Amino acid sequence: MQHNRWSASLVSVLLLCVASIFVFGFTKSFNTVPQEVYTIYLDGEKIGVVKSEDEFLDYINTKEEAIKARYGVDTVYSPKGVDIRKTITYNNNIDSNMEIYNKIVASKKFTIKGVVITVTDEESDEEPVVINVLNKEIFDEALTTTIRAFVDEEQYEDYMNSTQEEIQDTGSLIENIDLKEKVTYRNDFISVSEKIFTDVDELTKYLMYGTLEEQSTYIVKEGDTISSVANANKLNVEEFLIANPQFTSENNLLYESQEVVVGLIDPVISVIVEMHSVEDEVREADTEIQYDDDLPMGTEYVSREGEDGLDRVTNKYQYINGQLADVAMVSSTEIKPSISKIVVRGDKYIPNVADLSYWAWPTERPYTITTYYEYRWGSFHDAIDIYVGYGSDVYAANNGTVYRIGTGCVAGYLGCNGRQGNYILINHNAGGYYTIYMHLKDVLVTEGQTVARGQKIGTMGNSGEVSPVPSASSPYAGTHLHFGVRMGSPYGSTINPFNLF
How far, in Å, CA of 480 to CA of 381, rounded? Predict the structure, then answer.
């Protein structure tokens, strides 16, 4: 009996101890009343629990004074990938704000409020350009500065203020200014690990050059001109003036030791300016050669002096980033007809040898030169591009023999890649001159045929590689004649075609 009483007492003591441990242990880790806490996840993985979301965010904001100072903001926010969820629990185990902050800062960068700009060229397969800015006003101001670089300042102000004067007789005005790309804005939290533009000048530089790298510069030497400096650095004059806005004209003077920018412009955006222009253009008098079989070969006389005419021409011009991209003739009114000069020569046949003293203009008049013999977009354009209109006549510049025609390529001439479209190559059999006529609609001669100066040999078109590219909605886009001159052989050195005239 006594043994049993001791056993019962021992069991009672043990039960009492276990109960005490259970009760005290439970009340130490758990509350009897549920509480509201905030569970924090990092990229989907739980990293801890804090008592107050607001206090935790305030703690982050207090710790990141350097970020606030760097970007001039009042608030710093959690990194992307941090998710804070309200939870009801009996668990009394709460992490400190510092513990959770240290876990986050070890693997993630914090964010600030900003604006994400997306620039998308919907006609290109290239990835959109994404630009982060502190606020939309910074982008808007940088965009305006960039646009102004490609537009005449006075015309831009008149266009923006709707104060352009109507064209009375001649003149020009801006019809529209737009961007080729689609620009969208999105408010977002941006990681400080990404580039965030806070300065208008820095963003303007990026929009103009497509990079933040320092641009190449050149120290002016004695005798330099804007034209010579631009040409030596593979820029045309317009590109030079855009890169150096302190100059307003090709005729501005440079001084020795002056530093100028010669970096290649590669804009992130394409500024499209559409102009309406009415101009009086001189219709230069042609020289007509007549042959008189009764005169000895080599003799000539002028039977009639020529006289220039005048045409009033209305054109629509489209400029992309300051470069003429397209032109459409709206109308042409003859104000004064031109009178051809007539030169009579003694000859009994049309020679296939060119007369180097007279060259015929290869297109109808009036015409527009869309690209000169110059650098363009970083490479040299070794001919002139002439616009009159789709299907207009193209003429042989001088007597000669059709050396080659086709839609393929002239081996060794501009590479062999079919970019010329329909073309004619003429050997003038004198002085080593060859002329080439590219992007034709029609070819009206055959290889080996003798052609005369001023003879119609084809029609103007947009075959091959042209810009802008023709489309279903704009089938005549890119129309022009690429007229080039080679010396010595079809693949020899080039000269400026204007030297012939």
Answer: 14
Supply φ then ψ for residue 240, to 5 degrees. -65, -45
d(C-alpha 220, C-alpha 223), whole Å: 9
Split the chain (501 residues) into runs of 10 and give each run's mean pLDDT.
49 50 46 85 95 95 95 95 92 91 94 97 91 97 93 92 94 95 96 96 94 94 95 92 90 96 92 96 94 81 96 96 92 96 86 93 96 91 96 96 79 52 96 97 93 94 91 93 96 95 89
Rounded alpha-carbon distances, angstroms, from residue 151 to 166, 178, 268: 19, 12, 17
Cα–Cα distance measured from residue 178 to residue 199, given in angstroms and rounded to the nearest whole number: 24
- What are the two backbone dihedrals, phi and then psi, of residue 451, each rounded to the nearest 5 degrees? -120, 150
Rounding to the nearest 10 degrees, give the CA dihedral for residues 45, 48, 50, 55.
-70
Q: Which residues in the chain are classed under CATH 2.70.70.10? A: 350-500
Q: Is 158 helix (H, G, I), strand (E, B) or coil?
A: helix
The CATH superfamily holding the domain 350-500 is: Glucose Permease (Domain IIA) (2.70.70.10)
Contact present, 191 and 79 (Cβ < 8 Å): yes
Residue 197 in 3-state DSSP?
strand
CB 147 within 8 A of CB 180: no
| Phi, psi (degrees; rounded to nearest 5) at 416 | -110, 80
